[in-house]
Amino acid sequence: MGTEICFDIxxxxxxxxxQKWEKQYTLTDVTGRSQQEKIVATRDVADEEPSFDYFDFxxxxxxxxxxxxxxxxxxxxxxxxxxxxxxxxxxxxCKYAADHVLLVGRPGSGKSTALARLLLQxxxxxxxxxxxKIPVLVELRYLPSEANxxxxxxxxxxxxxxxxxxxxxxxxxxxxxxxxxxxxxxxDGVNELPSDRARxxxxxxxxxxxxxxxxxxTTRELSAGGDLGIAKKLEMQxxxxxxxxxxxxxxxxxxxxxxxxxxxxxxxxxxQTPLLLWMLCSLFRQTxxxxxxxxxxxxxxxxxxxxxxxxxxxxxxxxxxxxxxxxQYLAFVMIVGESATEARVAISRWxxxxxxxxxxxxxxxxxxxxxxxxxxxxxxxxxxxxxxxQIEFRHQLIQEYYAAEWLLGLLPSLSDARLQHDYLNYLxxxxxxxxxxxxxxxxxxxxxxxxxxxxxxxRLGARxxxxxxxxxxxxxxxxxxxxxxxxxxxxxxSIKLLGETKSDSAIKYLSKELSKNNEDIxxxxxxxxxxxxxxxxxxxxxxxxxxxxxxxxxxxxxxxxEIGNKKCIEALIQQVKNQGxxxxxxxxxxxxxxxxxxxxxxxIIPLFExxxxxxxxxxxxxAISLGKIAIDKVAEFLIQVLKDKNEERKVRHAAAExxxxxxxxxxxxxxxxxxxxxxxxxxxxFSKAKWALINIGNxxxxxxxxxxxxxxxFQEKNRALGILETINQDKAExxxxxxxxxxxxxxxxxxxxxxxxxxxxxxxxxxxLIQTLIESLSDGDEYESTMARxxxxxxxxxxxxxxxxxxxxPTMSESIGISEHVYSLVNTIQSRCKYYNYDIAQMTxxxxxxxxxxxxxxLIFNKEVGQIVAGNxxxxxxxxxx
Length: 882
Fold this sequence. Notes:
With 882 residues, this protein is mainly alpha-helical.
C-alpha cells in the first residue's frame, strides 16, 4: 500500500484561483441576488479591465438526438419528437459524467466556463468531503502533436502540480488514482487537439479508464475533431431573446433600450452566444453604433480595445502602432499550423517570437528586439495570454477574426487555384473565410470567393453564400441556385443547401416550393426555414401552420418551439388557445419547454385552461407541459386542483401527473405537497400522490419520506415505509434489467464487429460496391438495409471514397431517405479527413516562398530569389510586385 496523497493544498489553491476568476469575470449564482444585480456587479469590474470571459446567463443544454447526429430525415407518421432532455448546464454534465459525456457548443457558448464553474464547485465539495472525487482540468490544446500514450496523464499531473508543487505525484501515481476512481476529469477542447495522433491517444486513454474515472469532454461541434466514441452528447443552447434583452438593459442601464431599438429584430444575429453579446454591448457603450455584421463587430471591438489602453501606459517604442498587424500575422500562422488539416490554438513563446521576427524582418530596425518586447506588451495589455510557456489568443473566435483580417489582405493576390487548394478546401479555414467575407467590400471579390467555394463543395459554397455582406447575398444565393441546377442533385439536398445559407435571399425559393404538393419536400423546407430563423423565415412558418399536410403542420410547431423567440411563442400560444385546431395537442405538449424563454404567466394560463379540456389527450399533454415548468406557483395550483372534490376526476388525474412531472424535474415543493397529500382521506388523492412519489423515486422523495419515519403517527410512518420499500425494490429491479440489456448489446456489438471487417471494404475500384450498398439502403429486407448502412459508415474513414459518394448524389432524387443518408455520409467523411474535396487535396501547386509570405498586395523580398509564383503573378529576381 502506498502513502495516501493529501490533496488539501491542491484543493485550496483551485478554490482560491477559481473563486477569484468567478468574481472578476462571471455572474455568480449567489442566492438572494437578482440577475440584474449580478450583471451590474460584473459590469463594474469589467469597467476596470475588459475581459473576454463571458457571463453565466443560466445557460441550458439539451441531449443530442440520434436523428440529428446521424443526419436522418423524416420520421414515421405521428412521430414528431424524440425524448429530449433540457437541463441547466452543470446539472446536465454532472448527471452523465460517470459514463462520460461530450458537451458540444459553438465558440463563446459557455463550454469552458461551465468546466471552470464545475471545477470550483467540485473542489469546494471535495474540501468538505474526503470521499469526494478530486476534480482536474485537462486542456487538450497543450498536448504535443506527437503525443504518446502517457500524454494525458502528463497534463493531469501538470495541472495538479501547478496548484501544489509539493505533491508527490509521478505519472504512475496518476494512473493509480485513475484506476482507483479518485479523479473527476474535466477535459476541454477535443476540437483543439493538435493532431490525429494526439486524438487517437486521448481516445485510447478514455477507453482505458471508462469504467473507473468519470470524464466530461467539450468540443466546438460534432464535426470538428470527432466525438471520441462518446455516446451521450449535450448541446449548449443559444441564448433566448429574454435572456439577451435582460442582459443588454442591465449591462447598459442608460443605453440598453437604445441598443435594442437599433437592433430592431436582429438581436438573434448579434447575440448568438454570451461572448458575442458581451462584445456588442461593450462596443455600443463606446460608440452607440451597431456595425452591419459580425465581422465588423470584431473589427470595431478589437480596434476599440486597443484604443482603451491609456496613452500614458509605458510601452516599448512604436508598439501600439504594430499591434494589429502582429496579431493578424500570428493568428494566420497558427491556423496554417504544421499540417494542411490541423490548426494550432497554442504555440510556445519561443515560436511566437520567431514568427514575429520573421514578420518584422526588413520592416523595422532590430526586429529580434522589437519582436520580444512587443510580444510582451501584447501579453500585458492586449488579446494574448500565456500559460505553461504556451501563448494563445484569449478566445478562439478572436484568433479566427485576426486570421480573417490577414486573409483579407492576401485575397487580391491569391490565384483561384491557390485560394481553393490552400484555404477553401480545408475545414479549419471555413470560419475565418466566413468572417473575412463579412469584411469584403468588393462585390466582385465576394462573388468570386463563393463561386470558387461552390466548385470545391456545394455545402461550403452555401455556407459562404450567406456569409457575404447582406447586400451581396441575392447575387451569391442565385449563384448557388444555378450551381444546384447544373449539378442535377436531388431536390431534398437542394433545399438543405439553401437552408445552409441562413440567408433571407433563399426564402423566396423555399416558400415557392412550400406551396407545392409534396409532403416530404415540405418537411425539408420547414427544417431549412428553421435553420435560417430570421424574422422573414419565421413569418413564412407561421403563415404555413395550417398546411394541407398534417405532418408538415406538426413539424412547423416543433420548429417554432425550437426557435422560441417572442414571435414564435405568441403564435404557439394562439394554437394552445385554439380549441378547434387539430394541431393544438402538439402545441400544448411542447410549449412547456419554453418556460425558460418567456415570462411564466404567459405560458401557464393557457395550459391551466387546457388541463380542463374535454379530450383526455389534451388534458394529459397539458399536464406533461405544466410538469416542465418547475416553479412553486405551478405546484401550488396543481395541488389545489387535486384537492378540489368538485373538480372532475379526469382533471384531478391530470393534475397528479403534472405534479409527478414536476417532482421528476427536481421541484421540491411538488414533492412536499404530494407527501402532504398522503394524509388526505380522499382515496383518489391518496392513490395518485402515492404512485406519483413512487414513480419519481429520486433522492428528494427519499429525504422527505425518511423524515416521516420519525413521525409519531403510526399510519403516516407505515405509509412512508411502504413507499420507500417500493422505491428501493423498483430501483434494484431496474438496475438488474439495465445490466442484462447492457450485456446483450455488448455481445451483439462484438459479434457485429467481427462480421463487418472494414478492411474488406478497401478496394482498388470501389465504385460498384458503393453503388450496390447505396441501392441496398432501400432494400425491403431490414437486415440487408442495416448492413449496407453500417458498411457505408465504415467508409467514412477512407477519404478516397469521398469523390465517389459525391458523384452518386445526383442519382438520389428517387429516394428521400437514401439521398439524405449519402449526403450525411459525405459530411461525415469531410469532417474526419478535414477537407471538402479529395481531388483538390491531392493536387500539388508550386510552393510559395514561406520565408516571405504575401503581405496584402505586395511581396517583400529580403534576399535574392529565383522565381516566385504569387497569385496570378510570377516574380523574378529581387523585384517586388503589386
